[in-house]
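So, can you check this record?

>
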Amino acid sequence: MIEAPITDLRPLLAVLVSFVAAFFIVASYRSPNVREGWTIVAAVAKFAIVASMLPAVLDGAVFEWSLGAFLPGGIEFVLRADALGMLFAFLASGLWIVTSFYSIGYMRGNDEVNQTRYFAAFAVSLSATMGIAFAGNLVTIFVFYELLSIATYPLVAHDETDEARAAGRKYLAYTMFGGGVLVLAGTALVYLIAGNVSFTAGGIEELANADPGLAMLAFFLLAIGFGVKAGIMPLHQWLPEAMVAPTPVSGLLHAVAVVKSGAFGVSRVVLDVFGPELVFDLSLPFGFSAGLVLSTIGAITLTAASIIALRKDHLKQRLAYSTVSQLSYIILGLGLFGWYGLVGALLHIPAHAFMKLTLFFCAGNLHVSTHTDYISEMAGIGKRMPLTMGAFTVASLGMAGIPLLAGFVSKYYMLIGGIRMGAQLTPVAYYLVGALLLSGVLNIAYFWPVIYTAFFEAEDAHDAKPLVDFRMGGESRSTLPATDGGRPEDADGDDGDSDDTAATDIDIDEVVESAEGDSAVDAEDADSVSDDVEVPDDSDIPDAEMDDLPTDEDGVVRPNFDTSDRDFSEPADRVDTGDYAVDSRPSDADVPFGVGRGDANSADEADDQTDHGDHDTGHDDHADHDHGHAGGPPAGGWTHIDGLDVLLGRESTWFTLAPILTAMSLAVLLGVIPYEMGFLELIELIVDTRLPEEVMRP
């Protein structure tokens, strides 16, 4: 039983602490250590404030702080820490600590510009996220929903390139001017027909007695408005394009704040505005209810996004469409009327956060350490980045729903919920179960090629067929350059073996002149040839068929294949004209996809491809970093790191490795001990207080 709200400042403090820290971060711009120290202090303080409320909330308490009425009709600006808000706030504040440490390693390792602006915008974004989590009514959540869009715009457009600015504009157009307008319209309509916009466990009672048509319109305005940030199709286009942002921002967008705020907003609408029972009772033609329509949108999105992910060679793009798919699990589960479906939907919020944050952290670490962003360039990279790719493998298995990992638990609850709903209420739910199972198979299909390429292929024997980017079925040959890096020492002409190369150097001009002289005999010269020149008799000409053929000891003619001293297993000598990308970056290769993609025929165009399409950084020169190459295996292949070197973190800095392993461990723990972590206990409390008695916990 939920007790009366307790007036407390802690919900407000949780919102303000990182907002205040943003000013200290900006003031400390001359001292990076102090600036990042403020980030860590604010993150720890925010988590401590939120965690201090958790025990009481688990016992049924609600903490509330109100600024008072600020709109006609008695609408208050109110922050309320209830069980559902605590689920999102506890998750986001805890993962901000992990992401803050990772950001330090990533931003310094990538030598990013505007780092002060980055950390300040990050802090303000977390303030807006806490406001969304603790909002007590639709008006308050709308205010913070829009603030989050504004605060994260500098993060999306961080690189300040034309592409980054275009992605930022699209992000604002979709989430602020698109989704925000829909949320505002839905809020106004709810107030019009119910006279109340406060979140109420189980739904606002007045809506149950309102006109069904208006109620359904208000429901879909709110659900789609929040669903824009959750990436529901066809309103998802902003999300893949936002991958131009630095990888920690991608983690923020896809695992912690933005997309989760959209999924959380839909949860509020289903559970605390309309209520699960009314959402199921709002009938549509052909036996569909509002909840089943919502689940159907989720099922279509998760299937279509998974298929699109199969065709993405860029790792972050594949993860972006994976996010679109995985968030639709939450949308689908929220439309399942029953205890199991709702528990599974809410449990997938932290499960997806832990797994997807791990995956994006791994992608960022690969970029910083090896500048490798495309899956077709990753053959054998597992021996260079064993911890990173090992964590990537664990998180991928969790995303596919393998037991003992977080993804399995949440999907198991949703599967049971769909089956029970199909058996007891409507057979349509069985189709949703089929979509869940199909998506699990597709998850394996688009994550397995990454793992297979990294661990089970060698750089010089790479088979690109597991990929289906561009051409269905992939390539039947390697898309990687030779592991000698295209023999850059030959291109430079000073590999240290000057004596050997000097003997084989050929003057190209002399060869051309000689060829021209031999083949183009002037007609005049031909007529002036003296008749007294002795023309050899045919008998003097050796028989080309018999006389000069090599024979063995027994006189048997044996062909001699050793007609040249050249070793044909090595690349031929190449004239360095300076006109080709390979002259500048020997790791580039002209292949249909992967390294050197596109029709870059000039050095200028090739230089634009230094990052191979990944705009995690658009300003720094990586030429001398680590391997000194632009992506894919360096000259000589990947360096093998194992044993003590792995434990010492030689593959990267512990500022990035530790957050990766932490997020991966949380995904494992949530799959093994969900109750002990507090999430499942909190979720069961949420669902128990929002379902009618006849559909309570089985």
User: Anything to note?
Assistant: The chain has a mean pLDDT of 78. The CA atoms of residues 108 and 115 lie 9 Å apart.
